[in-house]
Amino acid sequence: MTDRPREMAEGTRLALRAVELDKEDAVALTRSGHALGHLAGDLEGGIALLDKALVLNPNLAAAWFLGAFLRLWHGETDAAIEHFTHAMRLSPLDPELYRMQAGMAVANLFQGHFDIATAWARNAARELPGFLLAAAVLAASQALAGQEAAARQAMAHLRRLDPGLRLSNLKDWLPIHRAENLATLALGLRRAGLPE
């Protein structure tokens, strides 16, 4: 992005416009809900659109897993796990399976299940080795599980993927609203070697 605030505002405007154009299109509601939550930080509004999409099409895996992410960032980890699990059941060969797996890793990290988080993050990293979220959660979960050497190796990979990532800009990267969840991620990344 060259002008992040302007581009995020434009993305939000377009998401709202898509909803105005067709309030009964489950795919439009799904993508708009995700954009509203991720770009505008309106997690509640995004969740509401994703829930409506699921009423219109309960078999839309994207609505399940994107809704899971918004719930995850909102702090609803149990609901997020249920949504990710349902999405993977609906679409076990989904091209975005790596995102669902990374989401499961984050949810388990937030719940303190570091070994489970590590396993999910490894699965996501196998699916897409360059996926930043999977790399970050792998490093954090391994560090919090006491796997220091593995955590340092995962951190080296993360730093190659995004040399500019710092503890100080985590909040700009992920819209984590619950302070204790952000603190857990930050603690794991700090122990793995992410700079302040």
Short recap of the structure:
With 196 residues, the protein is mostly helical. Helix content is 75%, strand content 0%.
What does this structure look like?
With 196 residues, the protein is mainly α. The protein contains eleven helices and no strands. The model has no long low-confidence stretch (mean pLDDT 96).
CATH architectural group of the largest domain: Alpha Horseshoe
Q: Supply the CATH superfamily name of the largest domain.
A: Tetratricopeptide repeat domain
Average pLDDT number: 96
User: How much helix, percentage-wise, in residues?
Assistant: over 70%
How many domains is the backbone divided into? Answer: 2
List SSEs in N-to-C order: HHHHHHHHHHH
Structural class: mainly alpha
CATH class of the largest domain: Mainly Alpha
What is the CATH topology descriptor of the largest domain?
Serine Threonine Protein Phosphatase 5, Tetratricopeptide repeat
- Major beta sheet, specifics? none
E-strand count: 0
Strand content: under 5%
Low-confidence stretches: none
Number of helices: 11
Rg (CA only): 17 Å
| Oligomeric state of this protein | single chain
Instruction: Name the overall outline.
Output: globular
